[in-house]
Amino acid sequence: MRDELANTLLALPRQPNGRLPSVRSLMKTYNVSSGTVQATLAALAKTGLIRRIQGKGCFWISSDSGDRSLFPKNLRPVVRETISEKLERLFNEDWEHGILKSDAPLPLMKELAKRYDVSQPILRKFLMNKVDRGSLTRNGRHFFFVRKKVSRLQPSLSEIIFVTRCNTWGGFTAESEREMEFLKMVYKKAGSENFRLILLGINETSGQLIDRSGKPRKLSDFPNAVGAILSTLLVMDPHKLMLMFAGVNYPISIWWEHPIPSLPLRFLNKPNWTFFNATFGPFPGMEMGKYLQAKGFSQVIYISPYHNSSWSLDRLNGLKESGLLVTAYTDKEFASPWDYKQIARSKVPKHSVEAYARELLKQKILSLVSEDKDYEHLPLVCVNDEVAGVIIEMAEEGRIVVSNQIFGFDNSAESYLLRLPSYEFNTSALVDQMFYNIENPDAFAGTRKIHQILGNIVEK
Question: What pLDDT sits at residue 69?
């Protein structure tokens, strides 16, 4: 039983430092005893594949998938986490979750010591080390992130170039709530920090930067720019956009809405470029999986009519990595809701696009569930809130039968109307850290160049 459970765990997708499911969830998922789980984890730790951290759980050391047997030929020593490594990891996780904010003091030392389960003297030494390195500053009892303000004496010297996608004449229409929320927060943050935004669009047909009046522009038109924020959401070829900024020296904060492996090393190696990812990777699915297991679920249905996308695959893999048993109803024809709308735009007048695209989506969902009735009694995890809302609407129309247990991703406005538990992508932390990078580019010096912004499940 131990060997079978170990090889099952080794067959799951994994990443270095990724957390294994808890002992309790492994017992429930695989119907084994606590002793079997503990023996399995001890065997994996002995081979050097995982490390066990008291009070925190077990973590993968390797992502190697070449040899998934219990006792690989090349054994590695167990890596033990020191107190300083633990503090650094927990501090970075709080930063990535947006719990620690660049424009507010850190929680009091007493609160942080309790949160990180360390003594105040050890925590003080850790924080003072960050002060010595220049990433934090101290004022009395409070610690703050260092903020090297750009001169505000002349607003024209505080311009930030902000680029999103656009159409051939420079127009822009948000395709999702998250995109609109991102724009709103960028505008709000720029105003509160007294930056002047230069709004430009990237038109991929012409390969030009266009201002909101439809006029083609060049970066040389903005000699007072002190930084740039680039959104790659629905930019089909982000490399062309990045090449336009390849020669600038000011800080670049880029919202990377594409698979991480597609990011070219050329830009990762540039010292003034920092990338921020809030969507891709298995973490959203893993968080959803942990939430569902805490609710007592061990098996779910995953529904995605957008499985020709890495983000849909990431969420499925995250659910599996959490320890849930997952049955996948997926279709690889399309990659996003945008694809359905593009078909609708070619078929019907503008005022009918939304309704036509929604019906196309309903037909796709019907094709996914038509041959299996498990979806009628198992919890449904939908690839996003839109799909969850469509499924609820189809149930009300009598076209399908579902349970009341439906979950989604995006934490959209509709999720509140439907009282739908949903994973919220932390747009506020994303924008905060992108601006912080422009004002304090040295803050990320020597650290990883791709920053994962983490979210959480919002229960209605």
Answer: 43
Count of alpha carbons within 13 angstroms of residue 134, beta-carbon side: 8
- In whole angstroms, what is the distance from residue 281 CA to residue 17 CA? 14
- How far apart CA 160 and CA 253 sit, in angstroms, is 11
- Residue 256 · residue 235 · CB < 8 Å: no
Percent of the chain clearing pLDDT 70 (strictly above): 89
Helix (H) or strand (E) holding 197: strand 196-203
Positive/negative CA dihedral, 243, 246, 252, 253 = positive
Per-residue tokens: 13 = 């997708």
Strand 380-382, strand 406-409: pairing: parallel
Domain 2-60 annotated CATH 2.102.10.10: no
Sheet strands (E) in 278-418: 299-304, 325-330, 380-382, 406-409
Q: How far apart are CA 431 and CA 185, in angstroms?
A: 7
pLDDT of 90 over the 60 cut: yes
> Are the beta carbons of 320 and 347 closer than 8 angstroms?
no
Instruction: Read off the amino acid at residue 401.
Output: V
Q: Are 231 and 255 in contact (CB under 8 A)?
A: yes
Taking the C-alpha atoms of residue 405 and residue 421, their distance in angstroms, rounded to an integer, is 9
Q: Token pair 């459970």 is at which residue?
A: 5
Average of per-residue pLDDT values in the chain: 85
**Residue 74 above 50 pLDDT?**
no
Mean pLDDT of 114-124: 93
Band (pLDDT 50/70/90 cuts) for residue 415 is very high
**Fold for the domain defined by 155-276:** Rossmann fold (3.40.50)
Residue with tokens 């633990």: 86
Q: Apex CA 427: angle with CA 411 and CA 188, to 5°?
A: 120
Fold designation for 283-424: Rossmann fold (3.40.50)
- 74/96 Cα distance (integer angstroms): 34
CATH of region 83-145, choose from 2.40.30.20, 1.10.10.10, 3.40.640.10, 1.20.272.10: 1.10.10.10
Residues 136-139: contacts with CB under 8 Å, at least 24 apart: 136/106
Nearest to 293 by CA among 326, 266, 260, 271: 326
Whole-model pTM: value is 0.72
